[in-house]
Design goal:
2 copies of one chain form a homodimer. With about 210 residues, the first copy, chain A, is an all-alpha fold. Helix content of chain A is about 70%, strand content about 0%. Chain A is built from 9 helices and no strands. In chain A, α5 runs parallel beside α8, α5 (about 90-105) packs antiparallel against α9 (about 185-200) and α7 (about 130-145) packs across α8 (about 155-175). Chain A is elongated, with a radius of gyration of 20 Å. Chain A binds a DNA duplex (30 and 30 nucleotides) through α1 and α3.
Chain lengths: ~210, ~210
DNA sequence: CTGGGTTCTGAACAGTGTTTAGTTTGTGGG
DNA sequence: CCCACAAACTAAACACTGTTCAGAACCCAG
């Protein structure tokens, strides 16, 4: 009798319903609007029920964040294949950076929660999704290095510096620190483009493409 | 009779006491530990009293953040004059970036609050302190450009890109995203150094110093 | 010393995350 | 069929949060 399996399936259904509700509330009302009672209301359960599926609010949010990272990775992957099947590795690297920034612009609430949260004290996951995207970047950098487009002794360090570059500019822009320099999203994207171009070619005289 | 002035002074005294208490709690217990009641306890007043000096918790925190920006600016200023009276503009620029990162390492709670907060919807201040530091950076970049050490069509854009670079790397490091690449603070500082060096010289073949 | 204005507080309200005791529900075995 | 047991669910409470408001305490001028 497969009732146990059905129970298991139903359980998983409720679990994902909770996560979806949390994700939707997060997108619509921001992190402040994301309360256990709001989630409970949306899925028409009691708040206490959530604690039968997640030990904490932190655990629930962590799950949502993990999902967000997956989405972002897929977003970037899709973006880079869309606009660069024939592009060289350096161009693909640039496309990744632009996609990262654009994802942040399109999912600001997501993006904030992904990085504004505690320094992840309890991490068991062997970084399958979280840094999975980074590995792709590293590989791209390696191809660019092999093609002589970028010089780097350590492709991973180079990828991380690039990550820091676009992540930092994006954070500053989203928190309103750049308002008196870059006003619109278009201006911001062009700033990102310039910054990424810089990493490849530098500011040295005559080095610019 | 100067009782009005004395009253005013006493009032200002309580006000700064509140801010100091908030700052201390923030440093010791982080943003989560910063509650109105905790502040009231520390200054031995009732929670309601705080609302006679600040309309909001947001307004109070905003004040603390403004102070934090001033402190950071002064920290950087001191750092750059300390280790670079004879240094050229490019070296001073690098010192600024390192100081920024070191300040973040030494005041993690501060740093988080400074940038994790809402996109500052109510900003009347004509950026005297907040971007006051940025102007110094811009001036340094301009001197470096004039000396032929850095190429840049727009010194402000260049400064902002540098800001984004070190800010992003710092944020990622503080939120634990770089743990499997850079383990210690020393490694992190060397990453910052490499990244800033990159902005001046680029990854182009033969462009490295 | 009395009136008025400032300063302060106790108590409450609405909201939060979380726990627990207790109820409902559904299924498997006698 | 029905009972019992386990799983799912919830109402209510607890301790906390930011915030407000009526009233007490205080201080100083007239």
């Amino acid at each position: 009798m497969g009732t146990a399996e059905r129970r298991e399936r139903e359980r998983e259904l409720v679990r994902t319903a909770i996560i979806e509700a949390a994700r939707d509330i997060l997108s619509e009302n921001g992190l402040d609007g994301l309360s256990m009672r709001a989630i409970a209301d949306r899925i028409e359960y009691s708040p206490a029920t959530i604690y039968l599926y997640f030990k904490d609010k932190d655990e629930l949010v962590h799950e949502v964040v993990m999902e967000a990272f997956e989405r972002m990775n897929e977003y970037i992957r899709r973006e880079v294949v869309a606009a660069g099947e024939t592009a060289d590795a350096a161009e693909q690297y640039g496309a990744m950076g632009r996609a990262y920034a654009r994802f942040a612009l399109e999912n600001t609430a997501y993006f904030r929660v992904m990085f504004e949260l505690p320094p992840v004290p309890h991490m068991e996951c062997p970084e399958p999704e979280e840094t999975g995207g980074l590995e792709t970047v590293v590989a791209t950098v390696q191809r660019a290095v092999a093609a002589g487009l970028i010089e780097s002794k350590d492709a991973r360090r180079t990828a991380i510096i690039g990550w820091g570059l676009v992540h930092g500019l994006t954070s500053l822009y989203l928190t309103g620190r750049l308002t008196d320099v870059v006003a619109t999203n278009e201006e911001f994207m062009s700033l990102i483009e310039e910054a990424m171009l810089l990493q490849s070619t530098g500011y040295r005289v005559g080095a610019r493409a």
